[in-house]
Amino acid sequence: MNAWTAAALVLLAATVPPSLWVVARGTAVRRLAGVSLLSTTVGAVFLLLPQGYGRPAYQDLALMLAVLAPAGTLVFTRFVAGRRHETHPTHDSSTET
Known about the structure:
The protein is mainly α. The chain contains three helices and no strands.
């Protein structure tokens, strides 16, 4: 184990358990923040591990995650917003006289 892999392990140990706790137990907004923190952490780990193993080609995975994680956040936000809209319908103007 070298310094790069040790840094990845410390990063995972410090941020993944709290992120998973928030994702499992939090409100919708907190779950969104937990997922965003988790994707950022995994992206950083995917940048550290190729340095530790001496395989720079594996950094492409981190770049793909950096591109796809914000899109996943938007999809999650859209899902939560649509769900909230279904549980609390808005005032329908067609019922007014």
